[in-house]
């Protein structure tokens, strides 16, 4: 009889109510709380949800991010748990960064492409890549230099693996970083290139005259035209992967500003 009573009176710490757990967890240090999160799913859920009340003894209502949209901030407040809010806020408040400025003699609009270890800069008729470190970009010694791309100033370029697709006006050019040679260079007739994007086996080009052209890239060498779509407004941006193509228009004449196409179908 005594053994059955002992078994019924025994309760696990993870089975306690959240209010009781909060009072117990308040006596633990931050390293102990982080270790306790790894013990079971229940402890991890409680600590993440009530991190502000455990550590700061009051709810944390502020969220420090780089978001300027109030709608996005309100959405993050509702979705993110307390522990994630504190981690993001702490990263943004104590983040290590250094601002640098680069000045050029020739005045022209630059184009950028950012990677983990490289910073790509397109200006005038050339594209250069620079080594990117934790706190700075070394502009003195470029890693890759692609010069004399086109006769006029560069409009847009995109980097995908070892390929660079660039264009200005009706001129379109694909360059290989591995062979350091131009794969193809052709003219799109009267089409004025405004945006472009490149995937592993295809690319898309949008123009100011409301046209979109899509090409397959066979063996990363030969472009094959697939289709041309005409819209009511200028095409300002395109985003491409192996399945979907997103198109952003000016939406002056049409109420639709974002169009997503299924490339496979």
TrEMBL record:
Coiled coil: none annotated. CDD domains: F-box_SF (cd09917). It holds the Pfam family F-box-like. Residues 10-54 form the F-box domain. InterPro entries: F-box-like_dom_sf (IPR036047), F-box_dom (IPR001810), SCF_F-box/WD-repeat (IPR052301), WD40/YVTN_repeat-like_dom_sf (IPR015943), WD40_repeat_dom_sf (IPR036322). This is F-box domain-containing protein. The lineage of its organism: Eukaryota, Metazoa, Ecdysozoa, Arthropoda, Hexapoda.
């Amino acid at each position: 009889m005594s053994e059955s009573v002992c078994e019924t009176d025994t309760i696990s710490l993870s089975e306690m109510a959240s209010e009781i757990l909060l009072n117990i967890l308040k006596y633990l240090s931050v390293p102990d709380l982080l270790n306790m999160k790894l013990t079971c799913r229940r402890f991890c859920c409680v600590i993440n949800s009530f991190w502000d009340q455990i550590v700061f003894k009051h709810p944390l209502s502020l969220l420090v991010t780089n978001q300027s949209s109030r709608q996005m901030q309100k959405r993050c407040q509702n979705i993110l748990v307390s522990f994630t809010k504190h981690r993001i806020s702490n990263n943004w408040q104590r983040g290590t960064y250094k601002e640098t400025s680069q000045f050029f003699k020739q005045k022209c609009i630059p184009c950028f492409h950012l990677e983990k270890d490289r910073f790509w800069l397109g200006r005038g008729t050339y594209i250069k890549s620079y080594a990117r470190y934790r706190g700075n970009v070394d502009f003195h010694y470029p890693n890759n230099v692609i010069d004399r791309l086109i006769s006029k100033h560069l409009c847009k370029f995109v980097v995908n693996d070892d390929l660079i697709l660039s264009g200005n006006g009706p001129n379109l050019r694909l360059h290989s970083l591995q062979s350091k040679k131009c794969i193809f260079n052709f003219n799109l007739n009267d089409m004025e290139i405004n945006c472009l994007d490149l995937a592993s086996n295809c690319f898309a080009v949008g123009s100011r005259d409301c046209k979109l052209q899509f090409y397959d890239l066979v063996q990363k060498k030969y472009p094959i035209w697939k289709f041309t779509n005409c819209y009511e407004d200028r095409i300002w941006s395109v985003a491409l992967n192996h399945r979907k193509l997103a198109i952003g228009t000016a939406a002056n004449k049409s109420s639709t500003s974002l169009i997503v196409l299924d490339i496979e179908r």
